[in-house]
Amino acid sequence: MTALHVLSADLLRLCARALGLNEDHFDDKFDRHVSSLVANYYYPQMDEPLPGQLRRGAHTDFGGLTVLYQQDNAGGLQVLQGENAWRDVRAIPGSFVINIGDLMALWTGGRWVSTMHRVVNPDRADTSSRLSIPFFFQPNHDAVVEPLPPLAPAPDQQLPETVIAGEWMAMKTQKLFAPAQ
Which of the listed CATH numbers 3.30.420.40, 3.30.420.140, 2.60.120.330, 2.30.30.320 matches domain 2-177? Predict the structure, then answer.
C-alpha cells in the first residue's frame, strides 16, 4: 500500500504539472486519502461463454487515479476507444495500467476523460483464471472537487459543477449496488 501510495502521489504531481499547476496542487486533497487495494479473481471459463457475456461490465472508476496490475498474458481488459470501439489492453510484464477516474475528469473539466473499461470473457472455454489488482487512489473524503481555473467544463461534457469526494463515491457505490428496477 505504501509503495502504491508513493507511486500514485508521484503520478498526481505529474498530472498537476501537465495541467500547468504547481506540482503540489493535489497534496492537500490526498493527505488523508481513502484509497483501497482490491484483488479481482476471475474464475476459469469452463464452458463457452454466451454471446456478449462479460466478466465485468463497462464502467468508469469513481476517484482520482487507478493503478492496475494485471496478471501477465491473461487478457480480458478492454478500454473504450471512441464511441463504440473496444481495444484490448495487454499486460506488459512489470508494468501498471493507469486509469483516470471520474473525479480527475471533473477536476480537468472533462478534458481528461474517465477511462471506460470492461473485462471480456475468453472466446472459448479456458481453464486459466485471471487476476487483476487495482489500487484506487481516492481523495480525502471531504475534498471539494470542481473544475480547476481556467478549466471550465468542456462544452460537450455533462459534469457536475462541484462535488464532495466522499459524497460522490457514496452515490456511485449506491448506484452500483442498487437492486435492478
Answer: 2.60.120.330
